[in-house]
Amino acid sequence: MRPRRSGPIRRRGDQIDPPKVLNEQEKTALETYLKNRWLGGKKPQNKADMRAFKDLLIYELLLATGIRRSELCDLRLKDTPEWIGESAIYVYCSKKTKKDRTIPLSNRLVKLVKLYIDNYRRMTLPRYVQREDGDKPLFYSQRQKPYLENSVYRKAVKWGKAAGVKKQITPHKFRHTFATDSLLDEHSRISIYELQYLLGHKSTATTMKYVHYVIARRPGMGEVLDRRGRRQSGLKGQDNFPYA
Asked: I need a surface site. Which of 96, 168, 176, 240 has the fewest CB within 10 A?
């Protein structure tokens, strides 16, 4: 007979819990830090201003689309809204699923991507790259080389420290935050199958790991589940019991 478990229950390593998701205060701190670095002009004032806007756009894309850092690095110029003719980005042949997918963008993000391509991206391009070459990467590093996954990781960690966020910020935390926010937002009404597609998961079982986090935090869920309490409504002496 197996001994009875004692002590705290250890969660699985892939379990989604609060440390893996950004809360509103942390998102605000990151956004404030990144926006304050950018001068806010239609054209870059200098290289530092160009880098600041590029960092802001990378942050916005990671948080608003849930793409992996590898997929961000693989984005090409022809995967952007103007090239594909839709308010979306095209993720070509994801390394995880080996399938393509299209992820919608808001009008605000479409304008930010266009601003970056028209006025900021040219400062990052090597001399041998033509601005109109759609097969070339969307993002280049400070050394005018295509972004590597480790570079994006180091950027995210640096942003978190500079913004004063206590938990370590990683690109995958943006992905977890996108997934949980999508399910928690009562206006989006996104299904688990739609989220599976947007995240590029092979199996729905992988997407389901977000459900336990969302159910406990969805506003009014406890009232929805309290069917017995609703049946007790209107009974004599109700004021003396917690059946509101």
From this structure: 240
Instruction: Round to whole Å and give the CA distance between 113 and 26.
Output: 24
Tell me the β-bridge partners of 66.
none
- C-alpha triplet 183, 91, 188: angle, nearest 5°: 20
Task: Give the three-state DSSP class for 23.
Answer: coil
The secondary structure of residue 189, as a DSSP letter, is -
Which amino acid makes up residue 53? F
DSSP structure string for 60-75:
HHHHHH---HHHHHH-
Taking a C-beta distance cutoff of 8 angstroms, is the pair 120, 54 a contact? yes
Q: Which tens digit of pLDDT belongs to each residue from 180-222? A: 999 888 777 789 999 999 999 988 998 998 888 887 776 666 6
Q: Which residues are catalytic?
A: 68, 96, 172, 175, 201, 210
The domains found in the chain, sorted by start residue, are 23-166 (1.10.443.10)
Full-model pTM: 0.85
